[in-house]
Amino acid sequence: MSAKYDNYKDKKVISIGTMSEITGLSERQIRYYEERKLIFPHRTKKGTRKYSFNDVERLMEIAEKIEEGVQTFEIRKEMLKKDKEIRDNMIRGQLNARFGIPKSPYDK
Length: 108
Known about the structure:
Elements: H1 16-23, H2 27-35, E1 42-43, E2 49-50, H3 53-67, H4 72-99
Antiparallel strand pairs: 1-2
């Protein structure tokens, strides 16, 4: 795939109505998850929410967890932990690439 198509999943182009149709969640549920800081739509100058395909995936994960009985604050805590792990791995990778520092003491 060419570089110009690599970030299509990040582009915020989906309206809340379409997002509701894709995920099966109500617009009210989607707004609630935004209030709980589980999802972060882009806002146009007129205030319209726009979502990405990555947001679709995230909402589906959230809906599954809610169905399993997981509370929104627990989901947020897990998301923050996951984001931190991703950042830490990226930093370790950059350090390794730049200075040859292994990811862990057990890496060779």
